[in-house]
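Reagents: none. Just compute today. ABC transporter permease.
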Amino acid sequence: MIRNAGAGSGDARPADLPSHVLAAHRKLLRRRAVAVLTTQIAILLVFLAVWEVAGRRQWIDVLLFSYPSKIARLLAGKLADGSLMPHVWTTVLETGAGFLLGTLLGTALATLIWWSPFLSRVLDPYLVVANSMPKVALGPLFIVGLGPNMGAIIATTLAVTVIITTLVVYASFKEVDDNYVKVVRMFGGTKSQSFRKAILPASIPAIVSTLKVNVGLAWVGVIVGEFLVSKQGLGYLIIYGFQVFNFTLVLGSLVIIAIVATVMYRVVASIEARLNRKP
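Predicted 3D structure written out:
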């Protein structure tokens, strides 16, 4: 209800439009969505076709760049012998844990800072400095402190995701219209109720948008962590491929990362679309 406080401004809302206008608008949106998806698929297919031809005709160095059918054969062989999926599931588990924990901890820290203006002023320079640091460089410290295990990899991921989540979510809290809070206070609401009824609901779109950013950041943290310490995972396969000059394996691992990251991104985008959909 808080987010609809300005609905009486006289502007026509979608529900006020004639049904045939709404139907035409939805049809136009569907056509645009289909056109965008078709173009995206066409670009991908053209890229793969050019890459395949260039590899087969030796226009590129196949040792370094391989080509799609060769990558597909390698991945199919590893799927068939059961050696690929343990690496995939390990990385997906680490990425999912880092992604969720980073979002939750970052949002909790942003809430704490919003709750205490004094703490906000104290922590502001530290957050700015922490955000400017190359967080992945902390990986060796986590490995020494936590041991060469999954905990160190997840900690590296959290170092990448927590600070940016905190800054973005806290900024969204500050940008919420003060009138929303005043409405809650007028009815005797406490600060906690103001947060739950006004600040948090109005900031949900920003939090979900942060999830989309964290998808990429979580993958960066996990892969860097696996570069440093892991004996299993897609990051390990990439390092192993470099060591034995099997760049087809390197590119195949990158393809899997791209596919899984795309699925995660689409899930978050779907959640965002549902939240932003007007009743």
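The first helix runs from residue 19 to 56.
Action item: order primers for follow-up constructs.
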